[in-house]
Amino acid sequence: MSNQNTPRSAAITLAAVRAVAPALANYTEAKIVGDLWQRPELSARDRGIVTLAALIARNQTIGIPHYTNLALDHGVQPSEISELVTHLAFYTGWSNAFSAIMAMEQVFAQRAIDVAELRAVSPALLPLDETAEAQRAARVDAQFGQAFPGMVQYTADLLFRDLWLRPGLAPRDRSLATVSALIAAGQVAQVPYHLNRAMDNGLTQAQAAEVVTHLAFYAGWPCAFSAMPVVKDVFEQRAAA
Amino acid sequence: MSNQNTPRSAAITLAAVRAVAPALANYTEAKIVGDLWQRPELSARDRGIVTLAALIARNQTIGIPHYTNLALDHGVQPSEISELVTHLAFYTGWSNAFSAIMAMEQVFAQRAIDVAELRAVSPALLPLDETAEAQRAARVDAQFGQAFPGMVQYTADLLFRDLWLRPGLAPRDRSLATVSALIAAGQVAQVPYHLNRAMDNGLTQAQAAEVVTHLAFYAGWPCAFSAMPVVKDVFEQRAAA
Amino acid sequence: MSNQNTPRSAAITLAAVRAVAPALANYTEAKIVGDLWQRPELSARDRGIVTLAALIARNQTIGIPHYTNLALDHGVQPSEISELVTHLAFYTGWSNAFSAIMAMEQVFAQRAIDVAELRAVSPALLPLDETAEAQRAARVDAQFGQAFPGMVQYTADLLFRDLWLRPGLAPRDRSLATVSALIAAGQVAQVPYHLNRAMDNGLTQAQAAEVVTHLAFYAGWPCAFSAMPVVKDVFEQRAAA
Questions:
Q1: Biggest alpha carbon distance in chain A?
Q2: What CA–CA distance (Å, rounded) separates B69 from A128?
Q3: Which residues of chain C have pLDDT under 50?
Q4: pLDDT surpasses 80 at A70
Q5: Which of A35, A76, C40, C212 could share a disulfide with A71, CB 3.0–4.6 Å?
Q6: Per-residue pLDDT for A209 more than 80?
Q7: Mean pLDDT in residue range B171-199
Q8: What per-residue string of b and e applies to C14-48 under the rule 16 or more CB within 10 Å gives b?
């Protein structure tokens, strides 16, 4: 942890913001730094993951150095950042991850983060819930196996029997990042599966609702309003089950 | 107003365009500069707002300096640009606004626009239509209040009782920018509410149709074709009402 | 063709990737370079077009120089790259094309590609299938002609009676790029029309399925999963017809 417990103000950025949109600089300080990040519904560590996932999903490199520092300040480990980017390459596209890395590299260098601190490329994997994975695979195979054999195979082998089992980032945090990326990119069709998975992995309903609130600022109100009915449906179906 | 009444050609850009895609340079000059911007269905001032909103919504900083200059040339005031960016931070995400500001800062500096020309951070607000806002708030609260109390509160306090009432940009122009951003980002689910609001705020049907036409070039034909059925529905429902 | 037959490793990029996310560097080499691009379902030339279309649709300039070189290495002609960018200006928005050109210019300069090698700005056009175009135009005019006369006119005159008939890129390759851009941008509503057109223009079902698989890596798994039911519907309707 650095000696900064509140979000850093990005000095250069806020000076420019004040020169063009002083009201926006004021909203940033009063509402995002001074209010949103202080809300107890979601920890600052989780907000760091949610924000980075949103920026990576939206290919917004301008905020990556600031929020990488902030996430590290709030307890996300370098090895978890490394896994987060790797995970999001699959869920937001390879170039989004590569662009984020270009912007993160300076932060890792400034903080003298050594690659030896990061997880091994091929670690021992977490145990797989074979029953749940067999059900998922059977469902996807029945729907898409004949038309898209390559996708079905890659999805099983690369994602659910490899990426999700890497120990460098907890399944709950992978889910938090995945759901955040989906909402931030407006991809609500994929939210039900991954939000259910996130809540199975330990994300509470109050935390999930606050993820949407947090993302309203970082991805814009329309993304939050498009997500809310879908997220609410998941809440209701789980309550009824 | 500068002495340029037609869209400036971005000298460096068009040279590069000619080196890689001379046909595209030709389309740009013949169809965008020479045709689209000359169409009477929408003023050049409005086209400036629509284009900037689209670029900000799509995080396309490369065109921001050129189109900020163009909007200023066509009568959008610096204080309105400032408010536009502030408004779009809420509707397209904070980083989109910050990225735009980084690209606008040089234009403001080159034109010696002083922050004193911009609107106060906390001006006296426009009067609120309490009845309409009470209806909006009740509807959103009924749908989302229990699951997303933070979103419902922020939406009322920050957006409809604050941002939309700031006097630096007319409500009709805020609506024009909001609808443009939604269409340019492919967020058609939020178009009906905001297009109705825009037309209540004075945007005509012919102008709204031309916004879609204008955005076909700046956001691509698929965004326009995805918006058309939704926009047409709003037109028809208002005609039937 | 250069002397490189396999995808070039972007030296600077992979060094940065290894410093921040060594596992992602490993996936890139093992799964994308070593596996995906080697799959026989789609030629490397087609993969070059698909990848460039995805990057342009997503405004991801970081990968443009590498993949422009790769496409050229695999047999896409400079004149075809030039037409591809021109085509995608209409299908992904003008700024996406301009941003791509800024990133491509250096590649064209390094390879000493002369503008004289590119297609004429106004070439003799391919013959038009007047019957099919009359049907398309009548359908769009019936749905949108009254509300959006400008869009209907531009769509006929600029797109289907001009752009699509330019000889610099085969109709099948224009379709391949268009479908790839739509899937990569999450614009599935426009996929049925353009996928049918692509298959009419010679894209096979196996190739179309592999386009989705390829794009899972470059645009992210959620884009592929959102596209699959829509693409599958087209396959089934064509099989039933």
A1: 58
A2: 57
A3: 1-11
A4: yes
A5: A76
A6: yes
A7: 98
A8: bebbbbbbbbbbebbeebbbeebbeeebbebebbb
Nearest to B156 by CA among B133, B135, B176, B179: B133
Residue in the structure block whose two tokens are 């009676």:
C161
Residue that the structure tokens 């309903």 belong to: A205
Q: Would you state the torsion angle of the CA atoms of residues C64, C65, C70, C76, taken in this order, to the nearest 10 degrees?
A: 80
pTM summary value: 0.94
- Do residues A148 and C229 make contact, with C-beta atoms less than 8 angstroms apart? no
pLDDT at A9: 32
Question: How many residues are given for chain C?
Answer: 241
Q: Please give the CATH number for the structural domain made up of B35-118+154-240.
A: 1.20.1290.10
Segment B43-47 shows an average pLDDT of: 98
Residues of B in contact with C182 (CB under 8 A): 222
Alpha helices in A44-190 (DSSP H): 44-57, 64-73, 78-92, 94-110, 130-144, 149-154, 171-184
Q: Taking Cα atoms as reference points, which of C218, B182, B168 lies closest to residue A21?
A: B168
Question: Residue A46 half-sphere exposure, CB side, CA atoms within 13 Å?
Answer: 25
Query: Quick check: A76 and B185 in contact, CB under 8 A?
Result: no
In whole angstroms, what is the distance from residue C47 CA to residue B116 CA? 53
**A2 CB neighbour count, 10 Å cutoff:** 11
**Do residues C41 and A127 touch, judged by C-beta distance below 8 A?**
no
| Residue A9: strand, helix, or coil | coil
**A114, two tokens:** 């050594």
Q: Do C22 and A118 touch (CB under 8 A)?
A: yes
Residue A78 amino acid letter:
P
A72 pLDDT above the threshold of 60? yes
Which tokens sit at C83?
Answer: 């037409």
Helix (H, G, I), strand (E, B) or coil at C161: coil
Q: Is the Cβ of C26 closer than 8 Å to some Cβ of chain A?
A: yes
Chain B residues closer than 8 Å to A222 by CB = 91-92, 181-182, 185, 187, 189-190
Radius of gyration of chain B (CA): 18
CA-CA distance, C112 to C106, in Å (whole number)? 10
> How many beta carbons lie within 10 A of that of residue B40, not counting itself?
7
Q: How many Cβ atoms sit within 10 Å of the Cβ of residue A94?
A: 24
- How far apart are the C-alpha atoms of B235 and C11, rounded to whole Å? 54
Question: H or E stretch including A24?
Answer: helix A22-27
Nearest CA in chain B to C107: B20
For residue B61, count CB atoms less than 10 angstroms from its CB and return exposed for 0-12, middle for 13-18, buried for 19 or more: buried
Mention every residue, 6+ apart, whose C-beta is less than 8 A from residue A36.
A213, A214, A217
The confidence score (pLDDT) of residue A10 equals: 36
Structure letter (DSSP) for residue A117: G
- How does A54-78 read in b/e, with b if 16+ C-beta sit within 10 Å? bbbbbbbbbbbbbbbbbbbbbebbb
Kind plus residue range of the DSSP H or E element containing A236: helix A221-240
Q: What is the DSSP letter of B159?
A: I
- Closest partner CB to A85 (pick from C24, C60, C219): C24
Chain C residues whose beta carbon lies within 8 Å of the beta carbon of residue A92: 220, 222
First to last CA, chain C: 42
Residues 61-90 of A with CB under 8 A from C: 81-83, 85-86, 89-90
